[in-house]
Design brief:
111 residues, alpha+beta, 3-stranded antiparallel beta sheet, 6 helices, 3 strands, 14% strand, globular
Amino acid sequence: MINQFIENANFEDTGFSYTMSLISGKHKMVILYCLMEYKVVRFNELKRYLKNISDKTLSTNLKELESDRLIIRTEYPQIPPKVEYSLSDRGESLMDVLDQLCIWGEKNKLV
């Protein structure tokens, strides 16, 4: 895997680069982790979990995660509107990677 990374003249074509493009940013990994932990979450619940995030930033991140098919947005036709977010199968397959990041961080935390 490392050899492919080193030998590949174009970094943007690597799997690592592609994965990072999907989860890059301040909030995407936290959003995915919340959805893994709580399964189905509404917009305001996510906002509470993330604390200092604007509606616009959260909305943008959710739209990007949905377009990358990592999350599923389910809209219910009722008044007031109800929208729920959950991980897609593709998003769930990414959770092993995020778990490994957490494990590494716990083991290597500089105190």
